[in-house]
């Protein structure tokens, strides 16, 4: 299921985009879930990470699309944004909020299907490089290579990442299964480590970004073997 948000104040334009998405879904066999926001301000106030793609009108009352996209980027650095606009000049401004593309109005189905197909290819690449984890009140999408390690702390998981620490309500087993084959290994029952970020082994611990994570006796052999295989596979 591809989750799309459409921020569009013109009901007719929204209906057209929704119809085009439905037509594209029938042609390609893909399933879409569309959520409508009538204004940039409405999108920002109600937005929760979890969408794969945002189709954003630029010229809207109360809050324009460029401003709204800036706020969205603070909440969700990963979601794909495509602007829908009357003026091609906005495409250049779109780079400041890491927009993927733009679609010119009036929107033809041929142009829309081409742009949507490109956006979905990009979504697929990002999905392969990311993991979505449950957090209190919703979900957050994290880049796999930006995760240093995952710590089980009571009933929560703490994701130690490049952007900070994120608390999740998922279980370590669920996360381990989701990250299978992506270079993660347990050094003990409470830590799942990204082998890419292991700086060394010292005093019976894996050193990960300055943190020393104890390697338990039962996990020592499989963890060191996994680390050796990883280093052997990525070394020049």
| CATH topology name of the largest domain | Rossmann fold
* Spans where pLDDT lies below 50 across 5 or more residues: none
Radius of gyration: 21 Å
Helix content percent band:
25-40%
Major sheet strand order: 2-1-3-4-5
Please identify the top-level CATH class of the largest domain. Answer: Alpha Beta
Number of domains: 2
Reconstruct the topology from this structure.
Blueprint: E1 2-7, H1 11-28, E2 32-37, H2 40-46, E3 53-57, H3 65-75, E4 80-85, H4 90-93, E5 101-104, H5 109-128, E6 130-135, E7 138-143, E8 147-153, E9 156-161, E10 164-168, H6 172-178, E11 184-188, E12 191-194, E13 198-202, E14 205-208, E15 211-214, H7 217-234
Parallel strand pairs: 1-2, 1-3, 3-4, 4-5
Antiparallel strand pairs: 6-7, 8-9, 8-12, 9-10, 11-12, 13-14, 14-15
Helix pairs in contact: 1-5, 2-3
Give a written overview of the molecule.
The protein has helices spanning 11-28, 40-46, 65-75, 90-93, 109-128, 172-178, 217-234; strands at 2-7, 32-37, 53-57, 80-85, 101-104, 130-135, 138-143, 147-153, 156-161, 164-168, 184-188, 191-194, 198-202, 205-208, 211-214. It has 236 residues and is an alpha/beta fold. The protein has two domains: 2-128, Rossmann fold (3-Layer(aba) Sandwich), CATH 3.40.50.2300; 133-234, LytTr DNA-binding domain (OB fold (Dihydrolipoamide Acetyltransferase, E2P), Beta Barrel). The strands form four sheets. It has a five-stranded parallel β-sheet with strand order 2-1-3-4-5. It has a five-stranded antiparallel β-sheet with strand order 10-9-8-12-11. The longest helix has 20 residues, at 109-128. It is elongated.
């Amino acid at each position: 299921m591809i989750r799309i948000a459409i921020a569009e104040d013109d009901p007719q334009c929204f209906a057209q985009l929704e119809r085009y998405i439905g037509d594209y879904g029938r042609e390609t066999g893909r399933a879409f879930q569309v959520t409508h926001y009538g204004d940039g301000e409405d999108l920002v106030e109600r937005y929760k990470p979890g969408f794969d793609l945002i189709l954003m009108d630029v010229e809207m009352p109360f809050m324009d699309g460029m401003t709204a996209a800036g706020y969205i980027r603070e909440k969700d650095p990963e979601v794909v944004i495509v602007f829908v606009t009357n003026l091609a000049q906005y495409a250049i401004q779109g780079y400041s909020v890491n927009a993927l593309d733009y679609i010119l109005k009036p929107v033809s189905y041929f142009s829309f299907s081409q742009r949507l197909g490109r956006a979905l290819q990009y979504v697929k690449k990002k999905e392969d490089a990311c993991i979505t984890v449950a957090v209190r009140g919703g979900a957050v999408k994290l880049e796999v290579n930006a995760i240093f390690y995952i710590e089980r702390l009571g009933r929560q998981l703490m994701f130690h990442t490049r952007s900070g620490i994120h608390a999740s309500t998922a279980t370590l087993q669920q996360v381990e299964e989701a990250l299978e084959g992506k270079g993660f290994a347990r050094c003990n029952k409470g830590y799942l480590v990204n082998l890419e970020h292991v700086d060394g082994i010292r005093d019976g611990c894996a050193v990960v970004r300055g943190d020393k994570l104890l390697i338990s006796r039962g996990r020592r052999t499989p963890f060191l073997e996994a680390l050796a295989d990883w280093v052997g596979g990525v070394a020049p």
